[in-house]
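re: that chain from earlier
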Amino acid sequence: MGEVLGFPRIDPVDAQVGARLRRWRTERHMDLDVLAHAVKVTPRDLQRMEAGRQHLTSLQMAAATDALHLPLWALVSDTRAY
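^ sequence. v structure.
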């Protein structure tokens, strides 16, 4: 990912996934520190992921959905994938 005027660019897909992650974490009343521990990142890294400034790997997405008791599609789409 490149930089513009010293600010890192935000990937639109990372921003969407991060927003969904934040929404589900908030709806499930899960503390940022608890989810960060489950994903094996620092709370600051999780904040960056939720803001779309840091990419979630597939393993991190799996850990997050597992901790939040969600199917994987819940982070990548707003439409159910059955």
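The CA atoms of residues 8 and 44 lie 16 Å apart.
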